[in-house]
Amino acid sequence: MLRLIYQALLIMLICSANLVQAEEYTPTLFEADYTIRIKGAKIAKMTRRFSRLDSGAYQYHSETRTTGLISFFRKDHIIERSDWQLDAHKLIPMEYYYEHSGGKKDRRVSISFDWEKNRITNSIDGSSWKMPTAPNILDKLLYQLAIMYDLQAGKELLQYTVADGGKTKIYNFEILGEETIKTPLGELETIKLERHKPNSRRKSTLWCAIKLGYLPIKVENIEKDGKITVALINSLQGIPY
What we know:
Elements: H1 2-9, E1 30-38, E2 41-52, E3 58-66, E4 77-87, E5 90-101, E6 107-114, E7 119-124, E8 127-132, H2 142-152, E9 158-164, E10 167-183, E11 186-196, E12 203-209, E13 215-222, E14 228-237
């Protein structure tokens, strides 16, 4: 269950790369906490940290744990990170890592991008294989940062090529309009986006705060069985609000 929740939450990412100095394309470093609920009941907490490494590359780190009553029955723990570089205003993925433990089955995924050989190496639970890169391909965290860049640039076509599950997939988002959302940070004006998965009832809707560099502050995920999961920002450091 939490894996599906987390897949929706991937949409929320580091969108906080608030480019106050857009001409320099310098992402704003931050830390944000989100509360995850089903039918109003708190089931998990997620913390996301965006930092710069000593090498000069950037890293986005996300950690999610079950909380409340559900934590007595499940100890889900999800860690995810993306290491990437900024080159001539282009986002270049280098390493992606995902680990889910405490659920029915542990899962580990790593993706390495070799740009000299134009090759991607996928490793899932010990099995590895390679596939070619594609133009402007991103990982499952980095594409969300690209969404924020594109919204700030006023783009309306939000389409991304993503290395996902050992395959190359196309993610499409539709802009639905503006909406004011109440949060623990106060009322925030947002742009509302929606993603439908092909041939599926699953749908993800996200609200990106305009004055926070289009940081997603709320995400609603509808699963194929109709279950609705909502994530809402609880606290934020690094980005003024």
